[in-house]
Amino acid sequence: MAEQHQPAVRLRSLLNSRLGGWWVAGVLGFITLFSAIALLAVSGWFISAAALAGLALASASVGHGFDIFRPAAVIRLLALTRTVGRYTERLASHHAALGLLRDLRSRLFRRITQARRLPLRTPGAMHRLVADIDLLDQFPLRVVLPWAWASLLLGLLLLWLALLSPGLLLVTLPGLLLAWLSPWLGYWQGGRLAREEVAHAEQRREFLLDSLELLTPLLIWQRWGERSAAFAGQDRAHLQRQDRQQRLSSRIALLQQWALAASLLALLWQGWPLISEAAVSVPLLLAVLLTLLGLSEALLPLAGSFVALGLSQAARDRLNSLAGEAPQQEPSRPRPEGPWRLQLHAVTARWPGALNGPDNIHLQLEQGETLLLQGPSGGGKSTLLQLLAGEQLPSSGECRLNGQPLLHWDVRQVIGYLPQDIDIFNLSLAANLRLGNPQASDEQLWQTLTDVALADWARAHPQQLQLQPGELGSAVSGGQARRIALARLLLAERPVLLLDEPFAGLDATTREQVMAALVRRQAQGLLVIASHQPIMADRLRVLPVGDG
Amino acid sequence: MSDPAETKSWLRWLLAPQQRLLNAALALAVAAAGLFILQSWLLASLFSHWLLAWQAGSLASFDSSFWWPWLVGLPLCFILRPWLQYGRERLSQRASLRVRQALREQLLQRLAMLGPARRGLGADAELGSRLLEQVDALDGYVSRYQVQRQLVVIVPLLLLLATAWHSLLAAALLLATAPLVPLFMVLLGQAAANASQRQFVALGQMSGRFLDLLRGMATLRHLQALDRAQLAVEQAAEDYRSRTMRVLRMAFLSGAVLELFASIAIAMVALYLGMGLLGMLPWAQGEIPVPYQGALFILLLAPEFYAPLRQLGSDYHARAEAEGALAELLPLLKLELWQHPGTEPLQLQQAPVIDCRSVGIDLPGAAARLCPLDLRLAAGERVWLRGPSGSGKSTLLHVLLGFLPHTGEVLIDDLPLDVVRRSDWHRHVGFLAQQPELIPGTLADNLRLAAPGASNQQLIAALQEVDLWPLLRQLPLQLATPLGERGLGLSGGQLSRLALARLLLRDTWVWLLDEPLAHLDPQTAELIGRLLERLSRGRTVLLVSHETVGLDWLDRQVELQEGEHG
């Protein structure tokens, strides 16, 4: 992808959106880990020093003046900061992470709504929005913060060792560095596994959703067993992939622990000579040992960090490909005003790969007139309506609205199009209708429902306007769903209406009733209907499309 | 909300097959704890020797015969302990993998038993997210919580014994804080489980909302309703965020309580031991209750005393998550009652008689309704079922397919449908749904869904019968033409014909047809109607339709009364 395209998601900028929150989480987390390790080290040093002082006390009659209160206070303070730090750090980091996820969801949805076309099948897009975005918080939570903490603590430890005794630094350095760097061994494999997992998770979900949609026919055709076995196979492969990731992380953790053990053993091996040379005292040596033991708490989370990084990267790449390029600003165009007039001159259009389409259509339609497109299925009625509705498809000839080419106008508020595939959303009936006009009152909704002959049906339901039609209109019949979509379009009050088969599933009486309402509503506009059924209207014109 | 005891018993039932793996993991973890005690003892005694030698100024030279227990023991502990932990992780991860895989397969099987009635459980996107995310939500519970739950008792007990050996008071200090821990966890865990369940509901709703709105993007854009859709998405996302945060806050709080006890206990033990070594304890002035070696040993053990509890504290979240997820899955797991009960084989040599005797459906809360209906289809009779939208025409077809529990009786050649094995019955039934279901793939793939063994010639023959082949033959890829989502590329009429072709590929004695002629122009409807007439001769046919065109050949009309809505 070229540089000028601004990708929707960048890992780098993930931290920017809630930078303050991440800083707070980072500082608190560091304090917590530091306190946890220091608590052990100081305690160890304290009892060793106390034992030494006690021994001295027993052998000599004069008190050594061992200051007990300061270490005791430090120990209590560390105990407190560890507890409070852990709680507040977790709250802060997850607050930032979840806020980030929320921002990402809303931002990506907006990006998609602005794109001209959905680049992929919708179950996949849903999966990306829901699951992939969830993966992005792994980057700050499991990559950036743990590495920052581990590196800082390791640096502090090395500095302390260097000040204490260069000999100690030298013997422990190889093991510590190995424990710190060995997660990098997982960089390539972990990243690859993670990318594979994210990609296959999507395939698995699409396969499952497709299977569920086809469940009934597959059962009847005795093909469900095969299909579910295929899904089980995909699921197994997916789980195996996850398992390989976990194994990689576990192995790296094992290596890290062994590296730390090597540095501990080196410390003990060199410990006695160093004590003998009085390079370091026994209490301090113990403190170093305990620090090394405690450091595993900071280092071990790094084992899975590259798998997490891979997951975040894969999720980012796929989200970016979903969001596509940044939308281009559309040139502003004038909005046409009535009276309305539609002219078609020698219009021919074809969808790529389609056999049929409107051929050499001539037409002149004046305000208040109704146009009926007639012709066999697949003859090109729908294609003509799509062309008029502004779909970008290869065409020749001229479509003029009010004397100007269609492209000259901003017709977004003017043309209302009822396509063959309608969408009823999983919202209440009222909410579905109000998508057409959010300001519509309940009376308006009822009036429109009456116009499309649905009012009696809606009244018969106990929930009335709050009726939940269910996803894809599964709780309403196909004809009812079409008329709900029609009612929604009527509420949007578009002066030019293009309706594809609005009367499917209606008996003749109801059809006439709905038709009369449509004509009445469009008296000050244009009405174009593609239908198989005969309709009646005062100023009706009929246009055959295809060889009907 | 479901009964927690019930959730627990289901969890136990899920885990039972993997108990051996989990027990092995536990054994490894306990062995690792044993090694830790040994390692601490070795370290404590080593430092004790060094401290005494240093204090005495007797910097003796290195003598390997004296140091061998440490030379052998410490490396052994350092190498073996991480390895045992690795083994424990791997074993319990394997157990988790198997549990999830088995559960998912079972859930899918149950959905298959429900057939079209699964709509009552939720939209497909929601069901899909249950099968994927919520089953995966059991991972932490199986792979971490199960073993940790037992370790949390065993390990502290071991450490307590080791501590008590050296100092009863230090052991008592550790012991005193321990019982408070489970108490807090029970209190907080319950709240976390409830919150976790609500979070899953929110996740499912969010998935559904996204799918719904993305599918209808073109409509939303056309209606200029994108801003409202954006708002709906933001609402769902915010809802999900706030619920997740609530769950986490609960989980973190239980973690913090444990952390507090751990920190305080370590600090108290350290102070007690240190002051004891100085002989400054108020009640034992000048005495050393625990000598240095024992004191150091206890100090090294103390953090590990709380480590399993702390780990459990974070894994407790996993348990709450699992219980929440399972509570969501339970409606699906418990639906066994709805399974079609038939086991008898069914063989049809000719078109059967189908006799519905006061067949009805009136389930509380179910979307499908049907008033009790008497309908007898003679062998080879072709009946047209009419009725207003929503009167239950499609529902009756689902009943006849054996997918819905119902009152009354359906007899097939005098054999009750409920007694017959459903798959046997399906072998003889052709069903056409209102919207033809298509998979992403080629035309041939879609046709072969119904008849996997069909040759290209057979496919072409079927397409020819529905008048689709003359059209498709002109396409460059012919049978290999890919179909997009919702069959993009074909008109509504062509899709119906494709579905009819699929029906023709399976030669069945019974046809149940749901609006086969909707969306066809009168001319084509007439044509397909005639085709249906010719091809359905000798079959028992129940056809549901509003349309009147092309259906005059049916033997009989039955009018269904409007369903009663409260």
Automatic annotation (TrEMBL), chain A:
This is ATP-binding cassette, subfamily C, CydC. It is found in: Cell membrane. InterPro entries: AAA+_ATPase, ABC1_TM_dom, ABC1_TM_sf, ABC_transporter-like_ATP-bd, ABC_transporter-like_CS, P-loop_NTPase, Type_1_exporter. It comes from Halopseudomonas bauzanensis. It is a multi-pass membrane protein. PROSITE patterns: ABC_TM1F, ABC_TRANSPORTER_1, ABC_TRANSPORTER_2. The chain crosses the membrane at residues 21-39, 45-66, 143-162, 168-187, 252-272, 284-311. Its main location: membrane. One of its GO terms (cellular component) is plasma membrane. SUPFAM superfamilies: ABC transporter transmembrane region (SSF90123), P-loop containing nucleoside triphosphate hydrolases (SSF52540). Residues 342-548 form the ABC transporter domain. One of its GO terms (molecular function) is ABC-type transporter activity.
UniProtKB/TrEMBL annotation, chain B:
One of its GO terms (biological process) is cysteine transport. This is ATP-binding cassette, subfamily C, CydD. It comes from Halopseudomonas bauzanensis. It is a multi-pass membrane protein. PROSITE patterns: ABC_TM1F, ABC_TRANSPORTER_1, ABC_TRANSPORTER_2. Keywords: ATP-binding, Membrane, Nucleotide-binding, Transmembrane, Transmembrane helix. It is found in: Cell membrane. Residues 354-566 form the ABC transporter domain. The keyword Membrane applies. GO terms for cellular component: plasma membrane. InterPro entries: AAA+_ATPase, ABC1_TM_dom, ABC1_TM_sf, ABC_transporter-like_ATP-bd, ABC_transporter-like_CS, ABC_transptr_CydD, P-loop_NTPase, Type_1_exporter. The keyword ATP-binding applies. Its main location: membrane. SUPFAM superfamilies: ABC transporter transmembrane region (SSF90123), P-loop containing nucleoside triphosphate hydrolases (SSF52540). One of its GO terms (molecular function) is ATPase-coupled lipid transmembrane transporter activity. PANTHER family: ATP-BINDING CASSETTE SUB-FAMILY B, GLUTATHIONE_L-CYSTEINE TRANSPORT SYSTEM ATP-BINDING_PERMEASE PROTEIN CYDD. The chain crosses the membrane at residues 21-47, 67-84, 151-168, 174-193, 251-278. Residues 24-321 form the ABC transmembrane type-1 domain. Pfam families: ABC_membrane, ABC_tran. SMART domains: AAA (SM00382).
